[in-house]
Amino acid sequence: EVKLVESGGGLVQPGRSLKLSCAASGFSFNDYWMGWVRQAPGKGLEWIGEINQDSSTINYTPSLKDKFTISRDNAQNTLYLQMSKLGSEDTAIYYCARFGTYDVMDAWGQGASVTVSS
Amino acid sequence: DIQMTQSPASLSASLGETVTIECRASEDIYNGLAWYQQKPGKSPQLLIYNANSLHTGVPSRFSGSGSGTQYSLKINSLQSEDVASYFCQQYYNYPLTFGSGTKLEIK
Fold first, then answer.
1. Contact flag B101-A102 (C-beta cutoff 8 Å)
2. pLDDT at residue A103 in the model
3. Per-residue model confidence (pLDDT) at position A104
């Protein structure tokens, strides 16, 4: 069974940093592109970015490129999202997703909640 | 960026009815379109890719169609478990972008 489990969410003060992890199991992690999507409370979905199998290609949505960094550790079957200079606008549920055939997200984690507040 | 305009924002229909959700792209996306279903309190799940291909395990009452800039998701014989929000997403070009979503309720 394909499983993606996010961790590392919580309450963080404005201007601080936070790193999310996504542990993958049930599939060959190093064969897939992986990515992150977020959803602000009561809002729609926003693609953050994606990383290819060997980390040689990372794509970001332009507005977040200077704040967020996506990385992965294939030996640990883990995807990461490093977030810096957090503001209230970054309050959201952060989902980790697997990119299957045709660059669509065919598996999603349960999400990690991040609240940015003083 | 390619803008995805989704309509309606909300929809109420009776069990057994057929509903259609529309998605319009700001430019031709050459069938690079997916539909996702997000049930309340859950993560999104893939329904349709390549505009009209049903993802594994998705009931056949869901179907997708369209081309160019206009796409639609149809749900036949609406079931209670179809209560959810539905999002379209284009993957023809970066950055990947989503529609604003359609919230489907049962009358």
1. no
2. 81
3. 94
Nearest CA among A43, A94, A6, A104 for reference residue B45: A104
Tell me how far apart the alpha carbons of residues B95 and B90 are, in angstroms, rounded to a whole number: 9
> Would you state the structure tokens that stand for residue A48, as one six-digit string?
């953050």
CB pairs under 8 A between A and B: 58
CA angle A44, A47, A53 (to 5 degrees): 150
Is there a contact between A111 and A7 (Cβ–Cβ < 8 Å)?
no
Q: What is the pLDDT of residues B21-72, one digit of tens each?
A: 999 999 999 999 999 999 999 999 999 999 999 999 999 999 999 999 999 9
What is the DSSP code (8-state) at residue B52? Answer: T
Does B49 sit within 8 Å of A108, measured CB to CB? Answer: no
Contact A59 B46 (CB under 8 A): no
Tell me: the pLDDT tens digits for A107-118?
Answer: 999 999 999 999
Distance CA B44, CA B59 (A): 16
Residue showing tokens 């259609």: B20
> What is the model's pLDDT at position A101?
80
Q: Would you call B101 and A44 a contact, using CB atoms and an 8 Å cutoff?
A: yes
Burial status of residue A21 (CB atoms within 10 A of its CB: 0-12, 13-18, 19 or more): middle
Set of chain B residues whose Cβ sits within 8 Å of the Cβ of A44: 87, 98-101
Give yes or no for a contact between B96 and B3, defined as CB atoms under 8 angstroms apart.
no
